[in-house]
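Q: Predict the assembly, please.
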Amino acid sequence: MNRRPYVRKVERNWWLQHPRYVAYMIRELTSLFVGLYCALLTIGLIRLVQGHAAWDGFVAAFSSPAGVIFQWLCLVFAVYHSVTWFALTPKAMPLMVRGEPVPGKWIVGAHYLAWAAVSAVVLIVAGV
Amino acid sequence: MDVIEIDVAIIGAGGAGLRAAIAVAEADPALTLALISKVYPMRSHTVAAEGGAAGVIKDNDSLDNHFHDTVSGGDWLCDQDAVELFVNTAPVELLQLEHWGCPWSREANGRVAVRPFGGMKIERTWYAADKTGFHILHTLFQTSLKYPSIKRFDEYYSTDLIVEDGRCTGVVAIEMRSGRMMAFRAKAVVIATGGAGRIFPFTTNGAIKTGDGMAMAYRAGVMLKDMEFMQYHPTGLPGTGILITEGSRGEGGILVNKDGYRYLQDYNLGPPDPWPRKKAMELGPRDRLSQAFWHEQQKGRTIKTPQGDVVHLDIRQLGEKMINERLPMVRELAKAYVGVDPVHEMIPVRPVVHYTMGGIHTDIDTATSLPGLFAAGECACVSINGANRLGSNSLAEIVVFGARAGRSAAAFAKSHPKPATGATAAEAAQANLRDLFAREGGSDTVSGLRKAMNDTMESGAGIYRSADTLRQTCGALADLRTRYRKIQLQDRSNVFNTDLIQTLELGCMLDVAEAMAHSALERRESRGSHQRLEYPTRDDANYLKHSLARYRGADPPSISYLDVVITKSQPAERVYGGAAHE
Amino acid sequence: MSETVTLEVLRYLPETDSEPHFQRYTVPFRDDWVVLDALNHVKDNLDATLSYRWSCHMAVCGSCGMMINNEPKLSCHTFLRDYRGGVVRIEPLDHFPIERDLVIVMDSFMDKLSGVKPWLIPKQEKPLSEGEYLQSPAELNVFHQYTQCINCVLCYAACPQVGLNADFVGPAALALAHRYNLDSRDGGKDARAETVASNEGIWECTFVGACSQVCPKNVDPAAAIQQTKISASVDWLKDLLTPGAHR
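A: Predicted assembly structure:
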């Protein structure tokens, strides 16, 4: 048999070979932080149920320098996550109005509006 | 050598080949079928066709109109019984494509839309944006996937037909990925390998259009008919030869020379009415438009560019919206390959070789003179195109005659016994290949001989020909064929050896080119796309006949003639533009 | 001395090479040349043993996909003028076995394509005598972009999931399934779901989006897959709440 097809192995560092893959991995990494923050908020809820002392301990931990830095990181990554997520929404939910496609930036814009609205409600309820 | 036994072998998996395969599968799913192609089906050149496919469906039209447009468009060299069958069947086949999912462009009411096209006095060209061939090919390929009896042999290069006891009993092919030769023993064989535009230097045709099937049939004793008729498409991009569809003129584009003048009015195609009008100048038949370019060139009124002389195609007046909707590919091609945005600038264009009217001589059922061998599509000559093909008749032709070939082949396979071994023929093919691999001492290269062939065909057998230029070309081709027999391979490997494939393709092109040049030399008249400077008019008394080229090995072909079938339409003057209004 | 360009091409002759290796060629620079023209120049004048696929030279047949400076591109649609002054590195498309030189083994793709049942499965059968299925321009618009795929498989070369999971059905095949699912004449979504909505189908995709970035025809297979994820999830939920009702 003359044939001998050559299979090129995919290296472990495949994602470093091109900027688009690096950007993708960063995007994926941010979801880790989003997940972590959600887990911590859940713990916060549990502490709340467990009474004043537990709750105060939780707030103290969150207010520590390490805690603040961590929250800032989570905020930055969560924003990055949301921005990249919103940018992709027109692909996942194309809208047709009267036979013509709705321009992508309106769909993205609608997501930002909704985000702003929800944020406003949360801030008002939180008494800010 | 490995032998595969099947009922039907189809060589070529473009529009005609795929349609034939589906027809065989539907005629009888129990028939075994091999669909053999030197490329994956989606690469077949049908994919590049743009403008549309003609079929009568609108109330303002009639089969008779399509018939008359086609016959006069072909300068009365079409066999009228075949044209009648063609126009009757085209709408059915195009509708079948729609039922298989082809995304035809639509009218507001949801019915299939049609657009005006060259030489058609009433619009009847179905279209799928400006990528009709692409959509037809992909619809046929994807549909073919649902028939289990269609076994594909992708990237198998067919080299020789197997002929035994006066019957075609199969084909020998090289499995390109391994270099192994195999014999397909078949009860019936269909050739659907396309045209031979690559014989010329400037062509819309892709690399694969090398006339392989024509050469195979020709060498097996089947006549090649009307080979002198090569169509130049008036609007190809300079340099690459990329096709700019006739649809751009159908939608309202105009052609102007270096003075911005719509020059076609000087050649009996006028008057230069403002658009829209179906019988407008720019929608004249392709032969006339290409000839007009040649005349403008002689008068020095074409525009000089680094890639040669051009004229300008102006579609700016259509507006951006219509261009994006109906001619998106034209816009993309112009921007990418000549750096022009047709919304704002004129596109440089020139005539380029596009379609081979001639081909394997077949009857109305696609049967050749060799029992068991059928042919359909551009490689065949039935003839429905005569001396000049109307745009959008070819995409319809491939499905009409592709289906017919499939059914004819299926019927033949069912009514004939299995062929005898065919071992001798297959062994001869293998021996030839071994000789080629073993040959040493050659000084010519494939690319060198190919360029020489291209150059002599363009200079001697181009849009306008004369006895002198043609004799020169015939002589040059004879010399090239002799040199070809001594050519040696530069690559002697087995796995996907494209030097081998190109060498074999060159052999096919040289044989077919010789048939073209000699047929042209013998036809002492001008008709359709064959124009003789010293015989400028049509001569029905002597030449209302098809030319037939017979292969004679190392010697040039002998040319004989066959009467054209005339039924309803007596030869008359071809009238286009405003004159056709009356 | 007129301007030249250096090509660095990955060669592999399975009968003599144990591994692929690079080979350099110097070709003339022409303003209107594409990489394919440069390769043809090599084959015609410098090295007839170089093998690659090509045909139409107008970005519609899909034959000539290659990695050009690490980017999946059609060599007939990649202009030398964009690579002046550097070396142009040409390799066969990623994520496919190399048959020889720039020719890849396409078998897996062809199988994946047929696996999604990419043919019209009409909602309502209709005889030819009744004419065409009616389809408004708006209905055609819904799926039209997904019909544009030329099967060049640049998307498979770009997709890291294809690289990591050989069984992933892949962008082009899934986009083609979506083309039929969206076609107003088609009723075959359920028939395709077994392959499409499987673990090797849409669920292998993590929306890297590289496929859509490299697609020369703006098919946007990433969009097709995400839309299919939503519709498959909705179907799954419907099935859960009202088993068998929507079939």
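The mean pLDDT of chain B is 95. Residues 425-536 of chain B form a domain with the Methane Monooxygenase Hydroxylase; Chain G, domain 1 fold (CATH 1.20.58.100).
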